[in-house]
Amino acid sequence: MAEGYTTLFKDGEYELSEKRSRFIGYAKKVETEEEALGFVASVKNMHKTATHNVFAYTLRNNNLQRYSDDGEPQGTAGLPVLDVLSRGGITDAAVVVTRYFGGTLLGTGGLVRAYSETAAGAVKDAGVAVMETCRVYSLFCEYPDYDRINSFISSVGASIAESDFSDRVRLNVSIMKERSDDFLVGVRELTRGKSEPSLVEEKFVPVIKKDID
C-alpha cells in the first residue's frame, strides 16, 4: 500500500462578498474522478443561475490535477483554487467556488484574491486529515492467555476491532503499520508461539486532524 497522504477531514463551506459579487466555496473529499465530477455537477445544479462555477480537484491516482476557470479570464480562477490544494499538500479533494456577479469588475488581481480566499476558507472549514496505513490482524488465543493479550494490545496502541468467544478467542486487531512488528513479536512471546496473527487487510485511517491557518 502507498505511503500516507493528506486530505480533507469533512465537507467544508465558506462565503465571501467582494464589491457586491458573491463567492461561495465548497470543499469535499473525493477518491475518484467520477466522484469529483459528480460533486462539481451537484454544485452547478444547486446554483443554476450563478455566473461562474469554478472548480479544481486533485487525486492520488496518477497524481491527477484538473481545474476550470468556467468563463473567468484564464488563470484568475481555477488555478488559484488548485493552488490552495497544492500548497497544503492536499489530495483526493475537490473544491468548487460559485460566483454571482455583482456588477463591478474586480480585475485580474481581485479575482485571484477572491477565488483563493474563498477556496482557502472552504478548506479551512473542512479541516485537513493526515491518513496513515493501518493493518488489521486476525489471531486466535486460548482463554488463559486472553487477559495478557488484551492488556498488551492496549500497551502498543492497538485496538480490538472484532472479537468472538467460542472454543477459543478470536480477535481482529487494528494497529498502525509502523507498530505492527512490535505487535507480532509481542503476541508470539506472550503465547509462547501458539498464536500467529495473520494479516487481514491494510487500509488508510485518519490519525491527525490539522487546523488550517
Task: Give the SSE layout.
Blueprint: E1 5-8, E2 12-18, E3 21-29, H1 33-46, E4 52-59, E5 64-68, H2 78-87, E6 93-100, H3 107-126, E7 128-141, H4 143-155, E8 159-165, E9 169-176, H5 180-190, E10 198-210
Antiparallel strand pairs: 1-7, 2-3, 3-6, 4-5, 4-6, 7-9, 7-10, 8-9
Superfamily (CATH H level) name of the largest domain: Impact, N-terminal domain
Q: Averaged pLDDT, please?
A: 93
Percent helix: 25-40%
Structural class: alpha+beta
Q: How many individual β-strands? A: 10
Task: Fill in the CATH topology of the largest domain.
Answer: Ribosomal Protein S5, domain 2
* Domain tally: 2
Oligomer: single chain
Radius of gyration: 24 Å
CATH architecture call of the largest domain: 2-Layer Sandwich
Globular, elongated, flat, extended or rod-shaped: what is the shape?
rod-shaped
Structural overview:
The chain has 213 residues and is of the alpha+beta class. The protein has 2 domains: 5-126, Ribosomal Protein S5, domain 2 (2-Layer Sandwich); 131-210, Alpha-Beta Plaits. Helix content is 32%, strand content 39%. It is built from 5 helices and 10 strands, in the order E-E-E-H-E-E-H-E-H-E-H-E-E-H-E. The protein has helices at 33-46, 78-87, 107-126, 143-155, 180-190; strands at residues 5-8, 12-18, 21-29, 52-59, 64-68, 93-100, 128-141, 159-165, 169-176, 198-210. The strands form 2 sheets. Strands 1, 7, 8, 9 and 10 form a 5-stranded antiparallel β-sheet that branches. Helix 2 (78-87) crosses helix 3 and helix 4 (143-155) packs antiparallel against helix 5 (180-190).
